[in-house]
Amino acid sequence: MSFIFLSPPIQHINSHIADNVGVELYVLRLDLMHPQVNGNKWFKLKYNLLEAKAKNLSTLLTFGGAYSNHIFATAAAGNLFGFRTIGVIRGEETLPLNPTLSFAVEQGMELVYVNRQTYRQRHINQLQEELKQRFGEVFIIPEGGCNLNGVRGCTEILKTAAGFDTICLACGTATTLAGIVLSLNLEQRVIGFPVLKGGDFLIGEINSLLQTYLVSGLPAPVDFLASWELVCDYHFGGYAKVNEELMRFCQNFNKEHGILLDYVYTGKMFYGVIDLLQQGYFKPGRILLIHTGGLQGNMGMTQLLK
């Protein structure tokens, strides 16, 4: 399945802020792997699609909000690889559809809207059985691709990225962070930047994902856990919360380095890393920032801020 995806380049960032503290700063450009199914989204979907195919299931059903990168990527991947797709969307339908949902429909995804109370039950067997009764035999992918298949895919992200002391990335469900922790050596560490307010709740989620994966029998590059931590101070008010300061930072970063950042995830992490560099938080060494894609979300955020 991966033949249509480009190998992500690693780009050096010329930053006097980093130079002043002896840090070499690099970006893993997962956003350049594919125009539609890029970033960490492909890695979280890959083994889910392979399992669905192995089980002869031709319909994917998944969950997300109205601006979800995961909904966007699943719709595109389904169209690319010949799956019917169904997206269960949190909240009521709003017309005209926003750019994310318009794209999903163009890719052939059927949208089903549920109220927030029902949506909170998306992990419960009863709701999933009701959906299967309604749509037939479907392969269910959790919101954000947060399952062991998603973790497995994310263990492959750093295959071509050796020699870094610290890996930094934005966190939503933290599936990506769990996969990366399972693929490092003991001298490396991972720093996750939750984009949700009160993101320290992810500590328990990450520990559970890691321990479950280690006993699952699924392949992992290593059989130990690298060190990791969360920095929860750069959520800008919570998930999908954006202000002018963050938008200016992302726009200036693009002008200076030629890298577009999304406002919901990667932009917040980049902002946090630069701020921590100014505070002397990092020891001298080589830091790799993971650009997890999601640039399509900027269209929706720009609309909301108008």
Element layout with pairings:
Elements: E1 10-13, H1 16-19, E2 23-29, H2 40-54, E3 59-64, H3 69-81, E4 84-90, H4 99-106, E5 110-114, H5 116-119, H6 125-135, E6 139-141, H7 148-154, E7 166-171, H8 175-181, E8 189-194, H9 202-214, E9 227-230, H10 244-257, H11 266-278, E10 285-291, H12 297-305
Parallel strand pairs: 2-10, 3-4, 3-6, 4-5, 7-8, 7-10, 8-9
Antiparallel strand pairs: 1-2
Q: Mind explaining what this structure looks like?
A:
- The chain has 306 residues and is of the alpha/beta class.
- The chain contains twelve helices and ten strands.
- Strands 1-2-10-7-8-9 form a six-stranded mixed sheet.
Proportion in helices:
25-40%
Poorly predicted ranges: none
The value of Rg in angstroms is 19 Å
Distance between the termini: 39 Å
Average pLDDT metric: 93
Order of helices and strands: EHEHEHEHEHHEHEHEHEHHEH
Class from secondary-structure proportions: alpha/beta
Strand content: 15-25%
Give the CA-based shape.
globular
Q: Compute the number of helices.
A: 12
**How many distinct beta strands?**
10
Strand order of the largest sheet: 1-2-10-7-8-9
Assembly state of the chains shown: single chain
What's this, in brief?
The protein has 306 residues and is α/β, with parallel strands linked by helices.
State the main characteristics:
4-stranded parallel β-sheet; globular; 306 residues; alpha/beta; 6-stranded mixed β-sheet; 12 helices; 39% helix; single chain
